[in-house]
Design goal:
Blueprint: E1 2-8, H1 12-24, E2 31-38, H2 44-51, E3 56-60, H3 66-76, E4 81-85, E5 89-91, H4 95-105, E6 109-117, E7 123-124, E8 127-128, H5 133-140, H6 143-146, E9 167-168, E10 171-172, E11 176-180, H7 181-187, H8 199-209, E12 213-224, H9 234-252, H10 259-282
Parallel strand pairs: 1-2, 1-4, 2-3, 6-12
Antiparallel strand pairs: 4-11, 5-12, 6-7, 6-11, 8-10, 9-12
Length: 286
């Protein structure tokens, strides 16, 4: 069985389209869909109850965050395979069967990510490397942008990635992230210390550390409208993203790095966050 876990916050109409696509193009094996609604104010939970009675709905009375929501769904999931799927996505006819076939053919795959398409058909950048000290400093210094085709200097945002072949990667966006129950049993659920951002990065990092591989699979395609929830709180999202990156460094690098290098990395994270906040304010974001 495949368990599809969707965490929603105030994206009712996109969620409806997502669920319609799942039931329009189900896999050839049993599927269960679990929706966790984080106290949406737009009637999302009522819509699911009325239009998709077959969905397992967990309606939280407050916004518990993305990580906690996914953990709630995964704890209810019964499937051998578990798919984390954003509500602002839609699957195609062969999406789920292609993903399941890849997972079954590659027992070393701890997780896979999909090729994500904008509504106009353009490929959306959706694969990154881990934010290692080198990757972070090359990005903040601007060297990664100056040499976008350099795999050494551009290892974080991976602007050189072609999205046209199967590849072993660090962290595909959790917009679509399929894993297996054996992985969850080994590495655990998402770390709720990362409520909104970097919970997927931390999870992928732990999956890789446990010896599993993570793949990008271009035959697995989804439509992704992109950032529907976080656009509603743009400045807060930028602030939380950089706080989460700093927390990732505290968890995985403090005590392992030379103190001066660690301090330099934390300074780079804070500088990058300040510059992004300034740029967003100049553009009129709130």
């Amino acid at each position: 069985m495949l368990s599809v876990c969707v965490v929603n916050w105030n994206t009712r109409d996109l969620l409806r389209a997502c669920l319609q696509s799942l039931y329009r193009y189900p896999p050839s094996e049993p599927i269960e869909v679990i929706v966790v609604d984080n106290a949406s104010a737009d009637g999302s939970a009522a819509m699911v109850r009325a239009e998709f009675p077959q969905v397992v709905l967990i309606a939280n009375s407050e916004n518990l965050g993305y990580a906690r929501g996914n953990n709630q769904a995964m704890q209810r999931a019964q499937g051998e395979f578990i798919l984390l799927l954003n509500p602002d996505t839609e699957v195609f006819e062969d999406t789920l069967d292609n993903a399941l076939a890849f997972m079954r053919a590659h027992p070393d795959a701890g997780a896979i990510g999909a090729k994500q398409l904008f509504p106009d058909g353009r490929v959306q950048p959706s694969v990154r490397g881990f934010p290692t000290p080198a990757n972070l400093l090359f990005e903040v210094s601007g060297l990664a942008r100056l040499f976008p085709k350099s795999r050494r200097l551009g290892g974080y945002r991976m602007r050189w990635f072609t999205y046209d072949a199967v590849a072993e990667v660090d962290q595909p966006m959790a917009t679509f992230l399929m894993t297996r129950r054996a992985v969850i049993e080994q590495v655990g659920l998402m770390d709720e210390a990362f409520p909104l951002f970097f919970n997927d990065v931390d999870w992928c990092y732990r999956i890789r550390q446990a010896g599993w591989k993570i793949y990008f699979v271009p035959r697995v395609r989804i439509l992704h409208h992109g950032g529907a929830s976080t656009r509603q709180v743009r400045l807060s999202a930028i602030r939380e993203s950089h706080r989460a990156l700093e927390a990732f460094y505290r968890k995985h690098y403090r005590g392992r790095l030379n103190p001066l290098i660690y301090a330099l990395c934390i300074g780079a994270i804070r500088l990058g966050g300040a510059l992004r906040m300034l740029y967003a304010r100049l553009k009129g974001c709130r």
